[in-house]
């Protein structure tokens, strides 16, 4: 048995996190970091210490959680919640209605809801709704309470909202005090939702982009915990790709206006809604795709991911032959502008740069990210595809290409989404610390996080596609 197995078992038992496969690398780093900070090199002693010292255990767990989040993530569900579901509920129920973000990370999700509710209900919003965020990770909760954000958090937020709800603060942006104070943040463990109670019962629980870190048995246990926190008429919303994986028999899966959510089985829906057979879910959008997946299973992922790009690109980094300081300086400047959300300035600089160095991987990846945040998904796609053509090992380009599909910015291609995430997993399995062919900038996401997320998303996409194919077989 590996010396790390007892650490895995402890974390799984207390927090549910499944630290197999890729997540092991996180665990190794976290153990090494605790060994350095405590001076305890003997892993048995270290294990005994963290299992008895709650503060140290929290510090350890903070290094194991994946806290990726941003404002207005998967906005369709939030839009439906704020502009359709909650107004309907208010026609029959006394306010305040309570909303809980379970696994809120650094707060972008509940604060996004706060902004949207303010837009819809104005000054009355705070009297109509309570907002709570809960997370296992104490470090992200501290960030959430501060409500000071930089670059990537704003990637999907419109400049108008940013201007309306944030003020510049020491090179970053602080959420306005009235919204910050509206949201209450609490330490919360999904595994012990009742002991570690965040309040409730809640009318709405957001459980988005969290369940991918748990195995199925743990997810079912979490559903049972959440069902105690959900009000009789309440709804539970999961992330877009997680819905099928969460249909575990504890809640009833329901659809309204294209949004899928869960509710207690015995209660009627408040808005017009149709309970669905799980297998029918995937049929709506993905029936055609299962055929192309079946056809493509024997093909090479990398070569699939590298088709449809401009011919005759040199298979080398443009900067390799011309390592001039000015190019590298401009790349760093573009990267900084991107992180400051100065998208127009970054785009102008990168356009110039790409005229000089059309095959610079760094410039192509940055230009793809800028285009994505300027809501130009097709342009983003073109840049990422070019990056992959020049450097098939460019996992950041594969990752963000997959994200364009998963987030619905480019529509209707789960098979391509699947291939791109698979490429990330394959590349980072072979070279776990690879910089993805980037010469100058650091990858926008640590390789360990990218591989971890890609594996989880891949599972979700595979599940959806498998369900589609089963349904087709039956039908
Ligand atoms: C990827 S973030 C999702 C944030 C947000 N819900 C969103 O959709 O953007 C997942 C969060 O779940 C939290 N988490 C993981 N295990 C948890 C547990 N057992 N109890 C509560 N939170 C947990 C992590 O700390 C992390 O902040």
From TrEMBL:
InterPro entries: Bact_Chemotaxis_MeTrfase, CheR_C, CheR_MeTrfase, SAM-dependent_MTases_sf, TPR-like_helical_dom_sf. The keyword Oxidoreductase does not apply. GO terms for biological process: methylation. Pfam families: CheR. Keywords: Methyltransferase, S-adenosyl-L-methionine, Transferase. One of its GO terms (molecular function) is S-adenosylmethionine-dependent methyltransferase activity. Residues 1-267 form the CheR-type methyltransferase domain. The keyword S-adenosyl-L-methionine applies. PANTHER family: CHEMOTAXIS PROTEIN METHYLTRANSFERASE (PTHR24422). This is Methylase. It comes from Halomonas campaniensis.
